[in-house]
Amino acid sequence: MSIIIDYVTPGTGATAAFHVVQQVTIDYRNSRCAAQLESFVSKETFDNGKQPVFSQSIEFTELPTADLDPRAYAEQKIVAPADDKTSPTIARQYFIGAEIAE
Fold this sequence. Notes:
Number of strands: 5
Distance between the termini: 5 Å
Largest sheet: 5 strands, antiparallel
Number of domains: 1
Shape: globular
Helix content: 10-25%
Strand order of the largest sheet: 4-3-2-1-5
Order of helices and strands: EEEHEHE
Number of helices: 2
Strand content: 35-45%
């Protein structure tokens, strides 16, 4: 799965349009999890094995339910509406309303 939205990366100013959750870390003790989101120029650059132009961690203050895949949970939370306050990560605001694609 992937997240589709134009995002201007802070370090270079390059626009990345294709984003993939590469890792989800779950902290059961503190009821938090974090998704490592990698941003690519396009789906083609990802498919061709190119390196991401940006990578960032987006945190959430709750855990995925037992019946939900952690990656799917992270993707849903990253694109969730602005009134979903489960992420203290400021950069999440740039992904609100993005499309989740296969």
